[in-house]
Amino acid sequence: MEPSTIANIYEVTTEDYDYDSTPCHKGDVRAFGSQLLPPLYSLVFVIGLVGNILVVLVLLQYKRLKSMTSIYLLNLAVSDLLFLFTLPFWVDYDLKDNWRFGKGMCKFLSGLYFIGLYSEIFFMILLTIDRYLAIVHAVFALRARTVIFGIISSLVAWVLAILAAIPGFYFSNIQWESSHFTCSLHFPHQHLKQWQQFQALKMNILGLVLPLVIMIICYTGIIEILLRRPNEKKARAVRLIFVIMILFFLFWTPYNLTLFISAFQNEILANECEQSKQLDLAIQVTEVIAYTHCCINPIVYVFVGERFRKYLRQLFHRLLVVRLAKWLPFLRTERLERTSSTSPSTAEQELSNGF
Hints:
The protein contains 15 helices and four strands. By secondary structure, it is mainly α. It has a single domain, classed as Up-down Bundle (Rhopdopsin 7-helix transmembrane proteins). A hairpin with a 2-residue loop joins strand 3 and strand 4. Helix 2 packs parallel to helix 11 and helix 5 packs antiparallel against helix 7. The longest helix has 37 residues. It is globular.
């Protein structure tokens, strides 16, 4: 088994390094991954699936897709769900030490993983720009922040994510290795190192440098406006998106940097087996941290988004309590039904800032 689940996809680590004709055996690193990753990823899958489905239901149930922010939040949840969909297959891969799903699924799931990852990055960038326009260029935002523009920009983000994922889809393949099948990237041998470095650079530019630059520019402008004209309502509108962006960097930056070092290890590190083992172990640990992020956004909405908590309570009332009241007459449904409704004027006012 390869050092880690996504190292299988990137293949920025190798199974053996031949230094002075002595193979570098990494059985202990693989054993560590096979024990650690499946239970953790299973937990992430369950929490992330339930959380993101609830986000989608809240947005659709209360028709909150009448603003650009709500459209981006819905697409962000869909991105996480695409990412989560691949997890059970990688868990099975780690447990069985064998890819059992064939070449087509290897390509499809690898492509889906990258689409989910890149689309999440792009929609967080769009949410940051959306907050910037709403606060710094409020007059222009009245014309630009429309549902039509939200849909068009979302389609563009998905197209860009698919384009960024094409190499991962195209080069993913299965291969028989002694006693089992593997699913990983198989670049042309004559350009192997260049492709590995390109993948690592692309991931760090799109997943770290680009969102960081946009975040610095946008939030610098936002902070200047809020300092000149303090406004609690605007500050609350910014807080949620700011927390989402910060958490993305905290969870993904260690993994991105580890992948970068791994791809350029010949130029950065000495050719020693022990360093290679430590790097593979670092990839596994930082990968766990990065994967956990796909179940974080719904938790952030619960703790930071006041409106999300309110609508989530109403959703549970409508789906559970009101239906239970048919069999349990002592439950007072009238009050619950009243609290689950929102007047059009209030709703329209709340839609502008998402959760």
